[in-house]
Amino acid sequence: MSDKTSGYLDMELLRFTTAGSVDDGKSTLIGRLLYDSKAIFEDQMEAIEISSQKRGDEEVDLALLTDGLRAEREQGITIDVAYRYFATPKRKFIIADTPGHIQYTRNMVTGASTANAALILVDSRNGVIEQTLRHSYIANLLQIPHIIVCINKMDLVDYSEETYNKIKEDYKKVAEKLNIKDVRFIPISAKFGDNVVDASENMDWYQGATLLNLLETIEIVDDRNHQDARFPVQYVIRPQSDEYHDYRGYAGRVASGVFRPGDKVKVLPSGLETTVKSIDTFDGELDMAFPPQSVTLNLADDIDVSRGDMIVSAENAPKVEQEVEAMICWMNERAMMPRGKYTIKHTSNEARCMVRDVKFKVNVNTLEEVTDDKQVGLNDIACITFKSAKPLFVDSYKENRITGSFIMIDEGTNETVAAGMIL
Amino acid sequence: MKEYNINHLRELEAESIFVIREVAAQFENPVMLFSGGKDSIVMFHLARKAFAPAKVPFALMHIDTGHNFPETIQFRDELMEETGTRLIVRYVQDSIDQGKVVEETGFDASRNKLQTVTLLDGIEDLQVDCAMGGGRRDEEKARAKERFFSHRDEFGQWDPKNQRPELWNLFNGKKHMGEHFRVFPISNWTEMDVWQYIYLENIKIPNIYFSHERDVFVRNGNLLSVSDFIPMRDTETVEKRIVRFRTIGDATCTGAVESEANSLEDIIEEVAASRTTERGTRHDDKRSEAAMEDRKKEGYF
Lengths: 423, 301
Fold this sequence. Notes:
The complex is a heterodimer.
Chain A: H1 3-8, E1 12-19, H2 26-36, H3 42-55, H4 70-75, E2 82-87, E3 91-97, H5 105-113, E4 117-123, H6 130-141, E5 146-152, H7 161-178, E6 183-187, H8 211-217, E7 230-237, E8 249-253, E9 264-268, E10 273-281, E11 284-286, E12 294-299, E13 310-313, E14 319-330, E15 341-346, E16 349-363, E17 368-370, E18 381-394, E19 405-410, E20 416-422
Parallel strand pairs in A: 1-3, 1-4, 4-5, 5-6
Antiparallel strand pairs in A: 2-3, 7-8, 7-13, 8-12, 9-10, 9-13, 10-11, 10-12, 14-18, 14-20, 15-16, 15-19, 16-17, 16-18, 19-20
Chain B: H1 8-26, E1 30-33, H2 38-51, E2 59-64, H3 70-83, E3 87-91, H4 92-97, H5 115-125, E4 130-132, E5 149-152, E6 180-183, H6 191-201, E7 212-219, E8 222-225, E9 239-245, E10 256-258, H7 264-273, H8 291-298
Parallel strand pairs in B: 1-2, 1-4, 2-3, 4-6
Antiparallel strand pairs in B: 5-6, 7-8, 7-9, 9-10
Helix pairs in contact in B: 1-2, 6-7
């Protein structure tokens, strides 16, 4: 195997999301990242050149690379989350490209839910505005571990260091207010490529990393929870064959923590304790399993375990609760019904629930808590309490992005109507 | 904490296995669509991993246009035999014979679009509630908007502007009678990931992916394989070239690329150096800017 081939087998995966308003140049930035990292191919470029010409644009519009749907191209806006891919020798990247329109908060929440990092775009001419606050609030609500503030369109402010510093200071106040831990700043011009992939020749005063460089080097392994062993059982494997007559394996993905053969574990909701006999995979047994691996646990004792149950550390278990308090983002045109009944999907568990109370709504533009309006509609973020028909095995979302998250499903339409983060 | 590092292929693998298990858990009668192309081969490999040591708990389904590369069919049959997997084949020819679709005519006639009808009929007849496909988001701009769990109404249609939000790894497969889901376990894989994984796992693939000599002719910049299914224009001439296929679809609309790559290492290096997408060899995508979106809305893969 050549060095070239082996190099590709040693890359990490980083997922990031982008937030910015329609005119912040978000699609241009993504187009630039893809173009300068050579992830755009000739036939794609040719296709958008033709489209740009058809629309009578003077320059090739890189935004056309990401706006895939007919309606988006016709209206020149991004409607839905699009996923883009590119790779450098160090990392493979998945971009969740989310629309910046006000009415599309739900898309940003969606993109943010799986992201390791968020790029927040600020137009250097406008500075930190209401939308910046909103995007930062959501990124923090969804606990994206790393925030990169891209101060864009530096070409339009004469690459001014003073402008950059002012925006940086303004944003730091926001970060402090929101308690955002890891935030970094880069002055860029997506249109001309300054500090995106290549260091800018127009901003000598900036000595930091380029955007791509930062994306390649941010430490992400420790963002995962390796403390609290949690294994939601997804599927029970029972081979109907003579060779594996008595085999019962519990298939799932490690949500957090580390499992090793011999570990003492507890099965929820029964509370029965046993030990991990082996960690099985198609390729043989493993000596440990950690997130985000998909494995099959084989337990020492023959106890009743099924989908929706959770295998956890015997010493460190999640809370078992039927009364839950959570922040939710409402994602459906049909407003939440007061005391309405919904289906909750939480890990591999599913339960009916009833909304008990709306404690407050968040005004995402001012970050104020609103208590005199209990109506929760599309794109609203609210703190609610609900009662579930059976126990849920929960951690707070701040501790655990997997056992702390859930979705709500409308029982009539089957639509996913809300995303929830347990407090 | 170096010991908990996981490379991108293993992370993608874990995600796909999770999705496939989720399908087995959430649906009554799922199938996995299988074309004999590299993406469906990888998807099937992941399915075997997901349920080991048990067998894959669903059938594979092939929508056969009749315009196949014989090597693909032979490969498919051998793989099914070797793994003891149940295969359902539905033929576009049957849909034509039943008068449900009308065969396109002309030089660029293709059965690609007709497959949708055969697929949807198969789903309805067999009461399939979920069909897994090997579609990847990096393939095409309409696919970039696709969910892992993608809802289809009772007409099998996709409504891209009104998709269910999909958060974390919480997949909502709830539906009404007559509706179904398309699930794309390898959504987040790129062409490069697929090749690297085939290499890493030493997965067998049909030999037409490797360099070989073939009778071809040039049409619209594509090298099409000479076959009984494709009428040639008077101006088109048969040439022998050293080629391989980057994708394998219906033989009438899948072009070959000139290549000397005859090992997986060679292919990976070739893909890395390539300046065109693999769908660049697919005639079916070039019919219009939104060709894929339009086909997908109707119920295409």
